[in-house]
Amino acid sequence: MNESYVIKMPQLSDTMTEGVVVSWEKQIGDKVARGDIVATVETDKAIMDVEVFREGYLSGPVAAVDSTVAVGEAIAYLVASREEVQGADGTAPGEAQEAEVFGEPETDAQGDLPNHTHVIKMPQLSDTMTEGVVVSWEKKPGEPIVRGDVVATVETDKAIMDVEVFREGYLSGPLAEVDSTVPVGHAMAYLVEKPEQVSDTLAKSHMAKPKAAPQQGAGREVTAPPAPSPAQSPAVEAAPAARPANKQATPYARKLAASLNVNLNNLKGSGPEGEVTAEDVRRAQPVARPTEVAEQVPAHVLPHVQVPGHGRPMNAMERAVSASMTASLTMPTFHVSINARPEALIKAAKRKGVSVTVAIAKACAEAIKAHPSINWAYQPVDKLVERDNVDIGMAVTAEGGGLVVPVLRGCESRPLEELNESWKGLVERARKRRLAPEEYANPTFMVSNMGMYGVSWFDAIPTPGTAAILAIAAATEQGMPLTITADHRVANGAEVAAYLNTLKGMIEQPESWMGPLGPAIPEGAWDYDVVVIGGGPGGEDCARDLAGHGLKVAMVNDAPLPGGECLWRGCIPSKAWRAAADRIRDRAHDALLGITGTNTAKLDWEKLEVHRRGVLEERGRMALNTDKGVRIKVLQGFAFFESEHRIFVDTSGNAEDPHARAPLGDASSGEHISFGCAVIATGAPPFVPPIPGAREGVASGGVLTSDTVWGLKAAPQRLGIIGGGAIGMEMAQIFQDFGTEVVLLEGKERVLAEVEPEIAKHLTEVLNADPNLTLHTSVKVRELKGEPGSMAMVFEDAEGAEQRFDCDYVLMATGKRPVLEPLQLDKAGVATDNGVIRADARCRTSVPHIFAVGDVIGGLMLAHTAGAQGRVAAATILGEEARYDEAKDSGVIFTRPEAGFVGLSMEQAKARGIDAAEVKVPLSIDAKAMITGETAGLIKLVAEKASGRIIGVHLLADHTDTLIGEAVLMVEGELTLQQVGNAIHPHPTQTELFGELARRLASRLRRSNKKR
Ligand SMILES: Cc1cc2nc3c(=O)[nH]c(=O)nc-3n(C[C@H](O)[C@H](O)[C@H](O)COP(=O)(O)OP(=O)(O)OC[C@H]3O[C@@H](n4cnc5c(N)ncnc54)[C@H](O)[C@@H]3O)c2cc1C
Predict the structure, then answer these.
(1) Are 734 and 584 in contact (CB under 8 A)?
(2) pTM of the predicted model as reported, rounded to 2 decimal places
(3) Ligand 1 atom with minimal separation from the 731 CA
(4) How far is residue 130's CA from residue 616's CA, in Å, rounded to a whole number?
(5) For a pocket test of ligand 1, which of 541, 566, 647, 734 has the largest count of ligand atoms closer than 8 A to its C-beta?
(6) CA end-to-end span of the chain
(7) What is the rounded distance in angstroms from the CA atom of residue 325 to the CA atom of residue 729?
(8) What's the gap in Å between 683 CA and the centre of ligand 1?
(9) DSSP-assigned letters across all residues of 667-683
(10) Which site among 222, 364, 584, 600 is 20 to 30 Å from 305 CA-CA?
(11) How many CA atoms lie within 13 A of 267 on its CB side?
(12) pLDDT, mean over the chain
């Protein structure tokens, strides 16, 4: 190089007239290669880098850091040799020409163009683009151009894209000919100031021209820039990546992006004003550059096959596909296939008004949530890119042939309807090959659908940068073959098989993720629209809601009156006993208020039992009358499935015993009933674990359960209880209040697993302080022995010492477990999971028209939970959107004080990734508690830090059963600390504590936020 070049302050934005030199990235005398960043300058918008597209040595005079230089003025020079380098303050080299600076349209280097002529260069429109083919000129020479005009379209290696110009002027030749290939950064046309300066010539020698076709009919020849040899271009020395659209990136970030193959357009910048930094690039995923990956393929894998005939050179897109497919040879892939029935998905997509392609993409993304590795990628060398965003590439045929693969982004989080709208636009642009880079770059998963071509099976090839591609063939009677080809370095066969099974479920049951698509009752001449099996809180609430909407509903219950466990053996009878125990317990507080002579309270067991039974029977009759009143057909008998649309209601009374059950089809002792939908609400009876002597004890009557304890003829003198759950704890204190000596054994370290840990701990202490009650945790029960009225519990205590408690009875309170076998679920195809019926948040089982609610599906086994789920099932059957959310459920343990919970504890919030804080107050400071002497306990609020949303309330307080109402509304209504703090609570009530807690936590969070 004998000439020197001037590096001018580039115009880096439309409005920029001058720039401040921020830094010199190269020192005087440094060798500068094409694409090097030599300096950064601050424009009127951001700090940007100055790239040079010439080779040479940086030479002075250079503009000082912090100096302001007008656009177009020299900031430094490039000279041909080290010897010619001038110092920072040296004299400018004589006849310096202008170096090509990125972003600045250059003046013609040939010197044969008028002054103030600007060059329109071939833009770099994708990471991998090195050249472009001129497809069309959208403006003619001489036409006036305004900022933002599209003057031409060019074909990159991926799509046809617009060339926009951000100057005003007149389009002038020499114009690169249509079909000619122009290297990135080279001139393709000019802009002149005046019409008389316009030249309408075609490109001269300094432009790439189309060459004569080598053969008749053959395509164009490519004038590619010389590829740098590997020695000249070590990884980090690569030319910087293209500037990201609409954001800034630091010079080093761009260099790093180039060397790591990272697409800057896809990155969120963590620098000032969203600038992409090198750290952002390091964290990012790579874009596999097909050609580079292909270069890593050993030569023997790419044999040079002699093919007779004259080959037409591939066009840019064909070359890109070829390179990418060759690169995929480096992937150790395998195939796994499954058949799925597509009818439900097709119907669902139609109902939602979305394309089946988009519905499949969304199903794929939903299934990926359960199997994230399908969406990862192998990154050379030996790294895995674990990504959360599911961006699905799906092939579309372009006009004139060839496949284009637009990428539908954010399939994991965006709603189906929004994805569908995006897809429409993508398809339209893809057909015309007018996709923007971010619309086709970096899919994380791919889908290839050839169902419409009637192919029976095929597999597709994943491209580097993805781990798997799904091939969809045409549906037959066996279903639609789905074949995944996967990269074994990322996912193994079992993972892919599990993924395909989940995907099959998503396709066959789209309601599970799309929501109800209308009433769930299939068309048919059913005896009943819906049959509800079980008349407890779950079944009753469901049946009443359905009947209220005019559906023909039957409710089968194997008891004369509805109400289930809750009414007959659970909530209501236990609270009757609790109420009696409360009266005895409260006498202790009388003296505090100056009332004497009342502590002689005595329990009359028989009277209590008459009252208790009376309440149950009256409520049972009331329930039956209501059920009949709302036109539910109430059938007494034991129901089991005969098929997926038929049950048999056995009225023999032996139905739970498979040996005594009426033979299928024998209608003499029962009734066959066909149904459109069924709801299983059969509850869960007490579970008796295999402790030596336990089952024998149950048989003899020495060991009681929550089903049989109601038969006691009197409060026992001494009672052993096994199990520190809600039932065990309530019963333990009730009987201690009745005067029974109670010992409770719990195997775990703590009682009440569903209750917030601090609340449970305090309750344990309070209960242990009761004179007749002892709680032991971390015990091993060795044996139960004896007979009714004279039993013994032998156990090993927390210290390992053997202990024995002699008692009248043992109450087994070791949880509840559904009994599923008699239901013959297999006849209907209903799946179970760990001993409960599998149901989703909409209470749907594995069979789309069969639902399950309440204790039979596990989780919180509580009456209001069952009721809420019953209403969710009813809404889903009616085609309405409803979900059960355990994170907003609640419960009360009716001890004294009562323990209660709504929503999440700190522990649970953390497990769900919620950054939360808690605040608590002891009851001992509350005026009302002091007056009545009910000072034991505390109340806690848990709130999400960022939003102040209250996500949990935990209570240990007398009157929790009423206090909790406000807490339930806080959590369900997603009230904030601010809202609860501002609410005017009446005085003197304990609800004031909620306001106080909310204000305290809000103020703490405000203070800690300020410090951050
Ligand atoms: C001692 C005790 C105290 C409790 N206290 C509380 C409390 O304070 N608060 C609370 O929320 N929860 C409490 N519970 C729990 C509550 O009782 C249950 O969670 C609730 O009853 C579950 O309702 P469900 O509808 O799922 O089932 P269930 O109430 O058990 O109802 C199921 C019904 O289906 C019938 N059935 C079963 N199989 C068939 C069949 N094949 N055909 C026909 N009918 C069938 C059963 O006989 C039963 O009537 C307590 C439980 C116990 C044992």
Answers:
(1) no
(2) 0.65
(3) 1
(4) 83
(5) 566
(6) 56
(7) 66
(8) 5
(9) GGGEEEEEEEEEEE---
(10) 222
(11) 31
(12) 87
- Token pair belonging to 479: 């279903």
Report the alpha-carbon angle 825-883-759, nearest 5.
100
Joined together, the tokens standing for residue 96 give 């310096």
Asked whether 508 and 655 are in contact (CB, 8 A), the reply is no
Q: Separation of 649 CA from ligand 1 center, angstroms?
A: 20
Percentage helix, strand, coil for the chain under 3-state DSSP, each rounded to 5:
30, 25, 45
Strands 403-404 and 36-42: unpaired
Residue 216, pLDDT score: 36
Binding-site residues, ligand 1, Cβ < 6 A? 533-539, 556-559, 564-566, 569-571, 574, 638-639, 681-683, 706, 727, 823, 854-856, 861-864, 866, 894
**From CA 301, how far away is CA 411, in angstroms rounded?**
36
Residue nearest to atom 47 of ligand 1 (CA): 558
- Residue with CA at minimum distance from ligand 1 atom 19: 862
Specify the ligand 1 atom closest to the Cα of 856: 26
Residue range 732-763, pLDDT digits in tens: 999 999 999 999 999 999 999 999 999 999 99
Q: If you measure from the C-alpha of residue 12 to the centroid of ligand 1, how many angstroms do you get, rounded to a whole number?
A: 73
Q: Which residue's C-alpha comes closest to atom 20 of ligand 1?
A: 863
Cα 705 from Cα 792, distance rounded (Å): 16
Residue of 481, 450, 446, 443 lying closest to 462 (CA atoms): 446
- Alpha carbon dihedral 484, 488, 491, 497, in 10-degree steps, equals 40
Nearest CA to ligand 1 atom 2: 570
* C-alpha 872 – ligand 1 centre gap (Å): 18
Map tokens 């004139």 to a residue.
Answer: 400
Q: Per-residue pLDDT tens for 433-488?
A: 888 878 888 999 999 999 999 999 999 999 999 999 999 999 999 999 999 999 99
Q: Could you tell me how far CA 935 lies from the centroid of its own chain?
A: 44
Q: Which residues are known catalytic residues?
A: 488
Asked if residues 816 and 485 have their Cβ atoms less than 8 Å apart, the reply is: no
DSSP string for 176-193: PPTT-EEETTSEEEEEES
Q: Please say whether the beta carbons of 733 and 767 come within 8 A.
A: yes
Between CA 710 and CA 410 the distance in angstroms is 57
Q: Measuring from atom 35 of ligand 1, which residue has the nearest CA?
A: 534
Tallying the residues shown for the chain, one arrives at 1012
